[in-house]
Design goal:
It is a single chain. The protein is mainly alpha-helical. 56% of the residues lie in helices and 3% in strands. It has a two-stranded antiparallel sheet. A hairpin with a 5-residue loop joins strand 1 and strand 2. Helix 7 runs antiparallel to helix 9 and helix 7 packs across helix 11.
Length: 300
């Protein structure tokens, strides 16, 4: 292992220990550092002139991919300065692509109702896999959990006498998430047919011991097809976004939504104000005192 590779490993270890970076995040950062090393050689000794060449080398990348790679490098060089390995930080010479965060896809309320209705219909058979899927769906849409948070929930996270889940989110951050009455009923049904003594709420025979994110994704798309929905429009993230958007439409406070979703930064939560912008414009047009003077204003 070269000195540069050793420093990269120390940087990744710091991200894991001090910032609680997830395994997927660490793998992405490692790939980004390795890609830069292919162009620059030893990263630890690269100067600003060398870093400026990355813009040309990575010209074919999407702006979002380029921004992520440059972010990984900025953090790496900041780490080197903090550790006293370098006195200067050359990352100011990195490209700064302008990215526009895409709005999340959202299922309408009618689609969600069809989705839930089909899951409930399937669960009437009392087959464990169908009852499990109903519980998974109710928690995704009713509590807004991330896919990873949901599949790895321990049984201990579901208290018997309180309507809250104890969730461990990104970076090991703990939060309490309310469980809807529907989700509590679905969980009760699942616990009644769930077999085994696994510590996980949704156990599996795989290496992780619990249902995987990939399998959850597959189950939701299969359910979407049975419900007459386009499977490509459905994923765990889409249901989490639907939870957030529909709460905001119902008048939820943005700070409360931030807490429920487990966002570290309110700016991440604010994206949902853009998702709901069409409804807000229609509301102003229909309810503002001067709206009656505007021709062709649609009614709510």
């Amino acid at each position: 292992m070269t000195a540069g590779e050793d420093l990269a490993e120390r940087f990744l270890a710091m991200l894991a220990a001090e910032r609680g970076a997830a395994a997927n995040t660490l793998a992405a950062y490692r790939r980004d550092l390795e890609a830069a090393q292919v162009v620059l050689g030893d990263l630890a000794s690269a100067d600003g002139s060398a870093l400026s060449r990355l813009g040309e080398a990575w010209r074919g990348l999407a702006a979002s991919s380029l921004a992520r790679k440059c972010s990984a490098l900025r953090q790496f060089y900041g780490f080197l300065v903090d550790e006293g390995v370098r006195e200067d930080d050359p990352s100011g010479s990195l490209p700064r692509p302008r990215t526009r965060r895409p709005l999340p896809r959202v299922l309408g309320r009618g689609d969600v109702e069809r989705f839930l209705a089909r899951a409930e219909e399937d669960a009437c058979s009392d087959r464990p896999d169908s009852v499990r899927l109903l519980a998974l769906l109710e928690l995704l849409y009713g509590s807004g959990l991330r896919a990873t948070e949901l599949v790895s929930l321990p049984v201990a996270a579901v208290p018997r006498d309180a309507p809250f889940l104890h969730v461990t989110g990104k970076g090991g951050q703990q939060r309490m998430v309310p469980i809807s009455g529907r989700a509590r009923m679905a969980l009760s049904r699942w616990l009644a047919v769930r077999q085994g003594n696994s510590k996980f709420l949704f156990p599996s025979g795989g290496a992780s011991g619990h249902l995987t994110r990939v399998r959850l994704f597959q189950l939701l798309r299969e359910l979407a097809a049975r419900a007459g929905l386009d499977p490509s429009r459905v994923s765990p993230h889409v249901l989490r976004h639907a939870f957030a958007t529909h709460l905001l439409e119902g008048g939820a406070d943005l700070r409360v939504l931030q807490m429920l979703l487990g966002h570290a930064d309110i700016a991440t939560t604010q994206i949902y104000t853009h998702v709901d912008s069409a409804r807000l414009v229609a509301l102003v047009n229909a309810r503002h005192p001067l709206a009656e003077n505007l021709p062709g204003v649609p009614e709510l």
